[in-house]
Design brief:
This protein has a single domain, classed as Cyclophilin, CATH 2.40.100. It is globular, with a radius of gyration of 16 Å. By secondary structure, the protein is an alpha+beta fold. The termini are far apart. Strands 1-2-7-5-6-4-3-8 form an eight-stranded antiparallel β-barrel. It is built from four helices and eight strands.
């Protein structure tokens, strides 16, 4: 079978495995629009918590504020991600239980959106990151975190990865809250002017 036919078949099979009618969220930013498809079927706690912040308008006035890439990453294995959060000064709600990729079946692929966290069970929809390229070190069993629990993936960018890559390439010489993130904070955070469900 020609490679191109095999790729087409695998692509169709992967698309068929994703249920129809999943929620879409549009993030309108100062650099363009990003549309994310959420997976409450696979990661219900994480996806629904993120939607709670969207529906409450908490991301209106939020921002992308941190980037991790080859020139500033202090972890191992190194990763490429863009981090965003709710409007500054807004109170974050309670965390949700950690949904591993082992449990959800999702993976940290190019465009995957996932919850930030410290210890497992400390993440919430108030802060998230988006992968730039595949990041298997962030999956369950990956060694980016010593606990090997990975991060809670809950959706994927459907359009606007060019915007995310643009964010990722912005100057990251901003003031850092701690030693670890020096060189990772955007000098000019990218504003999220509006986040809303669509479709």
């Amino acid at each position: 079978m020609p490679d191109i036919t095999r790729r087409a078949m695998f692509g169709a099979a992967a698309a068929a495995a994703v249920p129809a009618g999943l929620p879409l969220v549009r993030l309108v930013t100062s650099l363009g629009v990003v549309v994310v498809r959420l997976r409450p079927d696979a990661a219900p706690l994480s996806a629904r918590d993120f939607l709670k912040y969207v529906d409450n308008g908490a991301y209106d006035g939020g921002r992308f504020f941190r980037v991790v890439r080859a020139d500033n990453d202090r972890g191992h294995p190194r990763i490429d991600v863009v981090q965003g959060g709710i409007r500054p000064g807004l109170k974050q709600g309670p965390p949700v239980a950690h949904e591993t990729t082992q449990r959800s079946g999702l993976r940290h692929l190019d465009g995957t959106i996932s919850l930030t966290r410290d210890a497992p069970g400390t993440g919430s929809g108030a802060e998230f990151f988006i992968c730039v390229g595949p990041q298997p070190a962030l999956d369950f069993g990956g060694t980016r975190n010593r606990d090997l629990q990975g991060f809670a993936a809950f959706g994927r960018v459907m359009s606007g990865m060019d915007v995310i890559r643009n964010v990722w390439q912005q100057d990251a010489g901003g003031v850092s809250p701690d030693q670890y993130t020096i060189g990772q904070i955007l000098t000019k955070p990218v504003l999220i002017t509006k986040a809303l469900r669509i479709g």
